[in-house]
Design goal:
The complex is a heterodimer. Chain A contains twelve helices and 14 strands. By secondary structure, chain A is an alpha/beta fold. In chain A, strand 1 and strand 2 form a beta hairpin. In chain B, helix 1 packs antiparallel against helix 2. The relative contact order of chain B is 0.11. The chains are: A alpha/beta, B mainly alpha. The interface between A and B is large, with 49 and 64 residues.
Chain lengths: ~375, ~475
């Protein structure tokens, strides 16, 4: 009986170690991981230098881990082990509450938040003295479970700093227009069809509330499954979301352009199958985009300084503004703004960033 | 190269196993092991592999000279030369900057540090080579005539960089002739898989918690204690897991390496703890420092001196920082106190009290061990007792206690003989399936956590 046990033990070991090694060797290398939204390490080049400065050994480890057979299955197994066996409340900093995926944020970077406030002031002082300047803060999903004992940002401190330090823009508080069901379960972002209260509040504050396209004049379009960034980071086995975007006459007729924007339309749906499905909203990461809206009910202009939350928000203003310029300060340095944008006096300006970006604001330049 | 890395598990290990078992005869197998070991070390320390070769060559030459001139003055000179070279290497690479830093701090000088990186595992392989030469001098071992075999002993990758400290006499016969059996391979595989599980599934998870504590801006007394317990568990499962993997790999290759841990956290005294923790290091200091100094067969003051010397050296062996010296001194003092009077008192107390005493001391000692210098010791130990006005409880501490509670309980139970005792009660029939299944599950689960890119250092690499 013992002999059978020994044979089986050796067989299991050999099959696993040798089998996976051979499988890895013959498996074609993949370039990208769509679930992790990153490029995968490729086979490192062997040179005398790379061998002796340990670059080769470090890169080889990354390569083998990235190109491992059944990598996604192993990542899911890791999550199952942590959630179901160790009963951990999070894995890779991602936690679940009532079927919604959240990201744990343990450090509130007051310095970074102050930097964001000063950046808003500096931009307003430099170019927006003749504009109507507003800002709003998008609470990330964890704001809705801030009293449930999870490690989340110190939101009181964050909002206090912004309100005290931003002196050149008027604050529009949108927190009361939002709830957790207005965000995707698996992703960090909010849902565009649930933003009407938010857009109305912003529009009213900026004086264009009456010109916004009413809810009933929009058509819903669904793309699915949408596997959000949080779900993919944690490799949590769960159902995807349905991503819904809204079109109207104003969005259909809008012409979109930008130094790096090659899609022409508000919703480049071909990007849904790419690294990030949310890129269907204004193409994802873009430094500057200009949206010309021939069907707008005013000739006013709007400048939105935004992060990715602004991508789904901006199209809902196409009925009210003749021109919307969308700027992401993470991808264009403020010093170069005049090279690309001329701020028209009397225009509206809205800074829209999420609490997560404010907490890491030094990525804005 | 880490045992718990993809390069080792799914590239290096399959290849070396293949070549090893194809190679005919022990001599050829030794050369496969030697070449593989040099590649293994080269991956982590490309330049310092020369140091390893030099160390092998130096002790090989010294030992041959010693044997040839046994009983003569030259043998003693050769022994001293060998020890000076080994300690010189260790001193230069490990303690030079520590010494410079101390001199600068005391005298206010600004002598620049060398910045020379520490070769991985130097504390282990210099101790192994020293013990070899000393044993040859003492006549307990014959000098190895074949340089390849000697180098195989020094460089043997399973125990090269984090122990256990294998003495030449432990494996001398196996280096010349060893049997490879199905039983040996299976038991080695089982030991390796369990070691991997201890390292990846427990130590790394505890390591994440200690890192979360370090990064947190929401410290509290509860969080400090959570950290202290997590670190004590991490270091045990990390080091004993590595030792298990080393012993398991040794068994696959036909070697019987000495045990290094024997459930230290069930000890009832600090004296017992050190009989169960890092046993090969304790044995080394006993045989090559404590006893040569006179051990306990001398005057009381010399005996106390001998203990003090051993424990200061033990502290320094673990790291070139004053907190390691303090850690060693702490144990030295406790061992003296136990031997003088506390030991007798402990015998009269209920076992439960003894366990609490040992665990309290050990958990605190590892906080000292893992602190960033002496300032870190003051800060971390102070934190455990609420110094600095930190709150008793914080939101993060409660969250992470809830999040890691099951892992901590599993780790605590795993640090006792309970799982083994329960398993031993089973009859042989279910084990036929259970053992291979457990081996497979542990390897697959460990692979899953490794691929997820979790926290994966080996703590004892720095020693």
């Amino acid at each position: 009986m013992k002999k059978a046990k020994y044979i089986l033990t050796v067989a299991v070991f050999v099959c696993l170690i040798l089998g996976l090694a051979v499988w890895q060797a013959v498996l074609p290398d993949r370039e990208k991981s769509y679930t992790e939204r990153r490029e995968l390490a490729q086979a490192p080049e062997i040179t005398v230098k790379s061998l002796f400065n340990r670059e080769f050994s470090d890169k080889l480890e990354s390569y083998l881990l990235d190109q491992f057979p059944m990598r996604e299955g192993f990542r899911k197994l890791n999550s199952l082990f942590r959630f179901d066996v160790l009963r951990q409340l999070d894995t890779n900093g991602i936690f679940l509450e009532d079927g919604v995926v959240y990201k744990a944020e343990t450090v509130t970077n007051e310095e970074q938040i102050r930097y964001a406030a000063q950046l808003y002031n500096a931009v307003a002082d430099a170019w927006l003295s003749e504009c109507n300047v507003y800002y709003t803060v998008v609470p990330d999903k964890s704001w809705f479970v801030r009293d449930e004992g999870y490690p989340v940002l110190d939101y009181d401190t964050l909002f206090e700093i912004m309100e005290e330090d931003v002196t050149r823009a008027r604050y529009i508080d949108i927190k009361d227009t939002l709830s957790i069901d207005k965000y995707y379960r698996t992703d960090t972002h909010w849902k565009q069809p649930d933003l009407f209260d938010t857009v109305q509040k912003l529009g009213d504050a900026m004086g264009v509330g009456e010109y916004l396209t009413p809810r009933g004049e929009y058509t819903e379009h669904t793309l699915s499954p949408f596997y959000g960034v949080y779900m993919q980071q944690a490799a949590v086995p769960m159902e995807g979301d349905e991503l819904v975007y809204l079109t109207s006459e104003a969005t259909d007729s809008a012409v979109v352009s930008g130094p790096m924007y090659k899609y022409g339309t508000v919703y480049p749906t071909e990007l849904f199958e790419g690294m990030d499905g949310y890129d269907v909203f204004l193409g994802g990461t873009q430094p500057i985009i200009e949206i010309n809206c021939p069907d707008a009910k005013t000739d006013r202009e709007l400048y939105i300084f935004r992060d990715s939350f602004g991508s789904s928000l901006a199209p809902l203003f196409t009925g009210a503004y003749a021109k919307i310029t969308v700027i992401d300060l993470r991808y264009v340095t403020t010093a170069y703004l005049p090279n690309y944008v001329t701020f028209t006096p009397g225009s509206d300006v809205l800074f829209v960033n999420s609490t997560l970006v404010l907490n890491t604001a030094m990525i804005m330049r | 190269m880490l045992f718990s890395g993809a390069t080792f598990l799914y590239a290096f290990l399959p290849v070396i196993l293949l070549f090893y078992f194809i190679a005919p005869g022990v001599k050829a197998k030794n050369y496969v092991l030697l070449l593989g070991s040099l590649v293994f070390y080269f991956f982590g320390e490309p330049v310092y592999v020369l140091l390893l070769i030099f160390s092998s060559l130096s002790d090989w030459l010294h030992s041959i000279y010693i044997e040839k001139h046994r009983g003569e003055k030259g043998a003693k000179i050769a022994l001293i030369s060998s020890i000076v070279i080994n300690l010189g290497m260790l001193g230069f690479f490990k303690y030079t900057d520590f010494l410079i830093g101390t001199v600068n701090a005391v005298l206010g000088t600004a002598i620049p540090k060398t910045g020379v990186p520490l070769p991985i595992g130097i504390s282990f392989f210099t101790f192994q080579t020293m013990s070899y030469t000393i044993d040859v001098y003492r006549g307990r071992a014959h000098a190895q005539k074949d340089l390849g075999t000697m180098a195989t002993f020094v460089c043997l990758f399973p125990q090269l960089i984090a122990g256990p400290i294998v003495r030449y006499v432990d494996v001398a016969a196996e280096l010349e002739d060893r049997r490879h059996t199905l039983e040996g391979a299976a038991l080695g595989i089982r030991r390796f898989a369990f070691g991997m599980g201890k390292k990846v599934l427990i130590a790394n998870v505890m390591g994440e918690l200690t890192q979360i504590f370090r990064d947190s801006g929401d410290k509290s007394v509860l969080f400090y204690w959570l950290y202290a317990v997590a670190y004590a568990l991490q270091i045990y499962f990390d080091f004993s897991g590595y030792s298990d993997m080393a012993i398991g790999l040794g068994a696959i290759f036909g070697f019987k390496f000495p045990e290094n841990f024997n459930y230290p956290y069930i000890s009832k005294s600090i004296t017992e703890f050190w009989r169960r923790w890092h046993m090969t290091l304790g044995g080394w200091f006993r045989d090559y420092v404590y006893i040569p100094l006179g051990g306990n067969r001398t005057t009381k003051w010399k005996w106390l001196r001998n203990i003090a010397v051993v424990w200061i050296l033990t502290g320094l062996w673990h790291g070139a920082e004053w907190n390691f010296v303090l850690w060693g001194v702490l144990f030295g003092v406790l061992l003296i106190v136990e031997k003088l009077w506390l030991g007798k008192l402990l015998e009269k107390l209920p076992g439960f009290v003894n366990h609490v005493y040992v665990l309290f001391v050990v958990v605190l000692s590892f906080v000292v061990f893992n602190a960033a210098g002496l300032r870190g010791v003051v800060s971390d130990i102070g934190g455990l007792f609420g110094a600095g006005g930190i709150p008793l409880v914080s939101t993060e501490a409660v969250y992470y206690l809830r999040s890691y509670a099951v892992a901590i309980i599993i780790a605590i139970i795993g640090a006792t003989p309970i799982p083994k005792l329960l398993y031993n009660k089973l009859t042989e029939a279910p084990k036929v399936v259970l053992e291979p299944l457990a081996t497979g599950v542990l390897l697959v689960l460990s692979t899953a956590l490794i691929i997820n890119g979790s926290f994966n250092p080996f703590l004892y690499f720095r020693f």
